[in-house]
Amino acid sequence: MPLDHPALAAADPAIAQLIAAEERLQADTLRLIPSENYVSAAVLEATGTVLTNKYSEGYPGRRYYEGQQNIDPVERLAIDRAKALFHTAHANVQPYSGSPANLAAYLAFAEPGDTVLGMGLPMGGHLTHGWGVSATGRWFRGVRYGVRKDTGRVDFDEVRDLARAERPKLIFCGGTAVPRTIDFAAFAEIAREVGAVLVADIAHIAGLIAGGAHPSPVPHVDVISTTTHKTLRGPRGAMLLAVREEHGKALDRAVFPGLQGGPHNHTTAAIAVALAEAARPSFRDYAAQIVANAKALAAALLERGFDLVSGGTDNHLVLIDLTAQDVPGKVAAKALDRAGIVVNHNTVPYDPRTPFDPSGIRIGTPSLTSRGLTVEHMPQVATWMARAVAASRTGDEVTLKSIRAEVAELMAGYPAPGLG
């Protein structure tokens, strides 16, 4: 059921119609992009409030604008909730998104030209971990580690050898296509040996960590960077957390005035709401269900002949290599989209194809879990995917249309949070 936007419909019918169309699309499709989710009605309401009218450069108690009587308490609530949820000494809730948050870590602890060690993008890392096309790879000297070809898991011998040889100022662990548990302790041992600041990018798994479904980076790492959407189920924002207070001031200076002006107060409020939701017992059930669904879906895909990077998953994410299916990732992703199953094409480790036309697709279970689907539904999801991928190979649009109707029928029985 589309939400009611009377003022918007009157002022700008074109935009209102597009938003209504997106609401319908999010309601009747099976969203499997691991970085997407549904926020609660409360988070959605907080995002669209009069707090967007207020400028608030600086930090609580130290602003450059007056009239912060309500803004400072909002930000303090978000900070206190973040520290309590992740058990850190310091939190900054102002970064606009994950990439600026990561860039702030560079600004806080490195100088242009310094060496940084991060997972290579084709191996599952993120652009901002020193990849060449990113500002982080142009302004800093990026050195990349990967995964073992035989296991699809991080090669810690390679990480240690690179760290000893290159002596990086920063080491990043985490990424965007990592289906296995991150061994924060192993990274910490290497970082301590070479005197590097260790940054855990937990953007994808923050909700799993908050809900106890993935080991925490605390106390192993120095800095934690995360977005606030994805598994954490908040608005599109970001946070920087310092495990020890000694790193907090440098992070704050890097965010403001180093990279940004005024924070987005409506987003800060929505982050505070999401953090309060994540502290409830029900959130632990949700986080555990995400992992259970992902493992069940991975098992069902293996049964249907799919090749999975690392052979499965420990978290919310499954990376599928379609080489044996004889279908490029982009072709499969577009066909799945027409079938009402939303994924993204993705490179796989040691991919012989280009990032614009890769061999794989990346899927995840946060969104379907937020809608109430459980492990009993995962064999059906895998069957739909197998049918759609086969149809993409032959151009069978009739089958894709049929799957689309079946998906919509299932989704009708599991209303999306925040969409009425």
UniProtKB/TrEMBL annotation:
The Serine hydroxymethyltransferase-like domain, residue ranges: 9-385
Site annotation Plays an important role in substrate specificity: residues: 229
Protein name in UniProt: Serine hydroxymethyltransferase
Subcellular location: Cytoplasm
EC number: 2.1.2.1
Required cofactor names: pyridoxal 5'-phosphate
Source species taxonomy: Bacteria, Bacillati, Actinomycetota, Actinomycetes, Kitasatosporales
Record PTM N6-(pyridoxal phosphate)lysine, positions in chain: 230
Organism: Streptomyces polyrhachis
Pfam families: SHMT (PF00464)
Enzyme class, first EC level, given as a word: transferase
Record gene name: glyA
